[in-house]
Amino acid sequence: MSDSAFAIVFFAIVGGALRVSTPFMFVALGECLTEKSGRVNLGLEGTLVLGAMTAYAVSYHSGYPWLGVFAAGLSGAVLGAMHGYICKLPKVNDIAVGIAMMLFGTGIAFFFGKAYIQPSAPRLESFSLGAWTGNQQIATALQINPLLLVGIAVAILMAWAFANTKWGLIVRMAGDSAPAATAMGVSVDLVRFLSTTFGGFLAGVGGAFLSLFYPGSWNQGLSSGQGLMAVALVIFARWSPVRCIIAALLFGAAGAIGPALQSVGITQGYYFFNAAPYILTLLIMIASAGSKRAMRDVPGELSITK
Amino acid sequence: MIGSLNLNRRRFLQGTAAAAVAGTAGIRLAQAADVTIGIVYVGPRDDYGWNQAHAVAAKALKGVSGVKVVEEENVPETDACAKTMESMINLDGAKIVLGTSFGYYSPFMVDMAKKYSAVQLRHAAPLWTPKDPKNLGSYFGYLNQAHYVDGVAAGLSTKSNKLGFVAAKPIASVLSNINSFMLGAKSSNPSATVQVIFTGDWSMPVREAEATNALVDAGCDVITCHVDGPKVVIETAEKRGAKTCGHNASQAPLAPKGFITGAEYKWITIYKSYADDLAGGKALPNMVSGGYEADMVANSPFGAGCTPEGKKAAEAAIAGLKAKKPIYTAGLKDNKGKVVMDKTYDNLDPYLDQMNYLLEGVVGSIT
Fold first, then answer.
1. Position A267 confidence tier, pLDDT thresholds 50, 70, 90
2. Which helix (H) or strand (E) covers residue B286, if one does?
3. Is residue B276's pLDDT more than 70?
């Protein structure tokens, strides 16, 4: 590989991490919060799709993309609240409800989204961290959307809150031991309801990024499973908000490898390189899951571990 | 005799449906030669791509007097498509049903053809063989000819001489579009090359956007594609300041600055001929296919990205294709150096349908 080809691939990977990672980040953070409270919400794929559609539609009608982002969050919160309420009922399995919510979310998104495939809505603006270099390639690779920064800020805030605030402690307690929380006089159902609702809000915002920034249009194949992948990233990040950010960035970067290598003429084996994110995730999972430390981070109340 | 009174629900529905059809058919006869055409789509009709190309033709068909069009979109390639077709036949009285997605054919359309021998079924991919039912058939267009014209215009509209192609999967029809695009570009600009990126799937919007960005980063200043919905590719390229050529339907509104032209199907030619044959009581052909020479493909109106020389050369190329000027000439090599065209092939030659290589001038690999 020549120097210029190496530079192209390098900047494509950095750019890919910054462009592609944001939806993964928001969904993973939402799921992280939900799972910390002791529930699994597999429905976030549907939330992501509904968020993308809502954001696009609201941005189109109002002309304000940020209003679209907020509306996407609200639509996600509604789906999250539905999941949270249904799971409160006796003998309801949260995984099964999650799958139902996933189909429900994509279904209503497709139903209401039909009218928005053709029109063009105002998109979110971005700014470049690399504009000062005067190099077009670097400037493009370092295009940053404010939502990425919001995501990172939310992650740091969440990590701090889990460790240092009473609210964080209550969420963790509900997730680790429901009897202990009940004994403390905390309503476990309410905590989980609120956590799932806010988790849904975050996932909806992630959807807004898809339709309003990158790839930046609404169509039915938009998510292609990213919401599900992000749920898996939470396990990969071992329920740490900050590690969710790293996992999302890594996943975005790995996803850019396939197209970037083909663009510089390394064209053999593109199916393999396109699978890079998944292979990487698996490898790191295998490498990290072996340690005893890994199990220590699992919330004790999760139905998958109980 | 209780058993015979035990009405099976399905039978009952079939019976009432048949009665309804008989009723409406009577009315139709009174109106003289009214033809109902059913069209089934796999995705939304306005996807700026494959489905839209069919829907544009369906819309034009509605304007033809004596023709009624019934449509259903978002029909998956499962039992659902059989049910849709059945209801078009039984409830809407469709005389011909057009299935526009690859996976509808076998077993669903084959079964439908056997079950409803009085109804014509046609499928938009070259799958029909003489062994299949006679009331079933295939139609398709040689879109590679329009991609060739794209290439001619792109070759004279590029500054970097590097053209980018975002492709879904390395199957023959995709490879033929890539190769034709490159040959068109080379014919107008011998130093042009085409760089291809395969995404591996028909609809992967994020990866399509990544591929477009990667091509622009690698210096390509014209981008085209063969994916299900070209919207993301065209919009991303436009945002990056690259010029674009379209695919399947017109994407001109998506790229007001950089659109050159695009390869479009002209399904209305085929649909209109079906309607005419049915109205005239003629037997429908089982296999209909063609390119520019049969008016079955077209190019989108030239956009702001096309240079005047590019437009002139593209129009000349269209005239050539209409006169059946061959695209694949003797001696062409694949990009590994092996001669793959032992002679000059006619544009519709079946040999070209077996294409499994990228020609010299295309940077990329099919594995």
1. confident
2. none
3. yes
Q: How far apart are CA B74 and CA B80, in angstroms?
A: 10
Asked if the Cβ–Cβ distance from B232 to A219 is below 8 Å, we say yes
For chain B, percent helix, then strand, then coil, each to nearest 5?
Answer: 40, 20, 40
Residue B257 pLDDT greater than 70, yes or no: yes
Q: Is B164 helix (H, G, I), strand (E, B) or coil?
A: strand
Q: Which residue, among A145, A263, A273, would best test binding to B if mutated, counting the most B CBs under 10 Å from its CB?
A: A263
**B228 to chain A: which residues are within 8 Å by CB?**
221
End-to-end CA distance of chain A: 50
Distance CA A160, CA A168 (A): 8
Q: Give A135-149 pLDDT, tens digit per residue.
A: 777 887 788 899 999
Compute the distance between CA of residue A245 and CA of residue A224 in angstroms, rounded to an integer. Answer: 20
Q: Are B146 and B301 in contact (CB under 8 A)?
A: no
Closest CA to B140 of B367, B303, B296: B296
3-state DSSP assignment of residue B163: strand
Residue A170 has pLDDT above 70, yes or no: yes
User: What CATH number should be reported for the domain whose range is A3-123+143-296?
Assistant: 1.10.3470
Q: Which amino acid belongs to residue B28?
A: R
User: What ipTM does the predicted assembly reach?
Assistant: 0.87
Q: Cβ separation of B209 and A214 shorter than 8 Å?
A: yes
Q: Per-residue pLDDT averaged across A21-47, rounded?
A: 95
Domains of chain B: 32-141 (3.40.50.2300), 144-263+300-323 (3.40.50.2300)
Residue A69 pLDDT > 50: yes
